[in-house]
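Reopening this one. Same input as before:
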Amino acid sequence: MAKKRTEEVVISEDSNGDERRVVVIRPDSKKLSEAQKVYNKYFRDALESGALLRQRLDGYMREQGIWNDQKEKEYNELTERINKTEKKLAAGGMKLSQAKEAALEMRRDRVAFRNLIAERNSMDASTAEGQSDNARFNFLVSVCLLDEDTRKPLFASVDDYDKSADEPYVAEAAGTLASMMYNLDPDYEKTLPENKFLKRFKFVDKEGARLNEDGEYVLEDGAEPAFIDDVYGSGEEVTTLEPEEEVAEAEETEEPAEAEEAVEEVAEATEEKPKQRKPRPVEEA
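Same output, byte for byte:
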């Protein structure tokens, strides 16, 4: 088991472009205890103000027409298709061109799945638990981001943190704290089975934009090149990669054995798969 990070120095910039260095520390038991008190307070306040509990969110969304049986069906179909395609890609025994299409199909389905649940996820933040989780994390940010020289908290209070939350270096440091606490992988998108496969055979560049056999960018459905980590807003300039000769030869011959070799590594890739859900009866709000 990998050793948990307890401290990390984030080197970033403020909105003026000046370098800022922030020490991010993992919260100790005392800080976690204080954070739980913040959670409890916000949870009581949220309930008193009429906020929904998470367990009643499904019923409310159906009452408002935000979620219905058709979307539930799409949810389950996408879930099943993603899992099925992942197993197919990992098993090998197909032509390289077929493996490529399977990986691209899996990537499209994953985007569709995220779009489908985007509104559900945004509404979850408004539940009593969602509001309380957010308040607890904001408190931890205010006490776990330290000045590198003084080793004292960067912010005097949560309100002080809120005033600077949009600063690039603050947002990056807060993201580092979340990654440290919840074991989030900043390169999660690039570790997905379909993206690892596409990158290995130079079907995409280092940022995930599609390439053809000449190393030129490919537009999907007439849109701008899609990047696998657009959600994080990397904004990095990417360069065209020249495909390796052996990759071009592998695609030309399209031998099943080569395809099996191509996908054998992605069989070990892991991710948290979406779970199959059964339709629920509408709950009273």
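So the earlier flakiness isn't reproducible anymore. For the record, Residues 222-276, 278-285 have pLDDT under 50 and may be disordered.
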